[in-house]
Amino acid sequence: MSLRRLKLPRQWWKPSRQWVMPLAMTVAVLVAAGAITASSLILVTHRKHHELAMKEVDVLGFARSFMTTFTSLDPFHANAYVDRILANGTGDFAKQYRDKVNEVLLNVAQAEPTKGIALDAGVERWNDDGSASVLVATEVTYKTPDGKQTIESTNRWVLTAQREGDQWKISSLQQVI
Fold first, then answer.
1. pLDDT tens sequence across 28-78
2. What span, in angstroms and rounded, lies between the C-alpha atoms of 150 and 126?
């Protein structure tokens, strides 16, 4: 006598489970697709924020460096000072600076040596053309002609930095009063 499995008739209180595995696989595929989509969106957003942060760090570093150079006068090297400023200028700023280069040279040559530092800087806004408006706080320290007194002056500047090739240049510079 061989053992045969008895096949019981389907009963209404014992539902068939043939649909469970396909449903579980479908749910698993949908969950995996959702997780991949969410991860992709988060990655793209993270990359955009990272690129903007790196761009901001780059422009702020340039703005601080430029303002330190701009506010540090050395009357013994006035020509080099003017050349450094012109090398970092573009647009209206460079044009206005070139137009007044002799006046600037005379003023720098007659001035007392100053030491300028950029205290802080922040991007005010990004313009549609890719330039950045940056607010920079500077401190300028110099001695009186008799050398007895040290004077410190704190100023705020708004500059517009424009990217040209692989470097930033100043297209506008205004002192905020």
1. 999 999 999 999 999 999 999 999 999 999 999 999 999 999 999 999 999
2. 38
Which of 3.40.50.300, 3.10.450.230, 3.40.50.720, 3.40.50.2300 would CATH assign to domain 20-176? Answer: 3.10.450.230
Task: Report the C-alpha gap between 53 and 58 in whole angstroms.
Answer: 9
Residue 159 bridge partners (DSSP): 134, 173
Q: Which residues contact 85 (CB under 8 A, 6 or more apart)?
A: 69, 70, 97, 104
What is the spatial distance between Cα 142 and Cα 112, in angstroms, rounded to a whole number? 7
Tens-place pLDDT, residues 65-118: 999 999 999 999 999 999 999 999 999 999 999 999 999 999 999 888 999 999
CA distances from 136 to 62, 63, 140, 159 (A): 11, 7, 13, 8
Burial of 109 (0-12, 13-18, 19+ CB in 10 A): middle
State the Cα–Cα distance between residues 124 and 122, nearest whole angstrom. Answer: 6
Strand 167-176: give its sheet, edge to edge.
114-126, 132-143, 150-164, 167-176
Instruction: Give the start-to-end residue ranges of the domains of the chain.
Output: 20-176
Rounded to whole angstroms, how far apart are CA atoms 175 and 177? 6
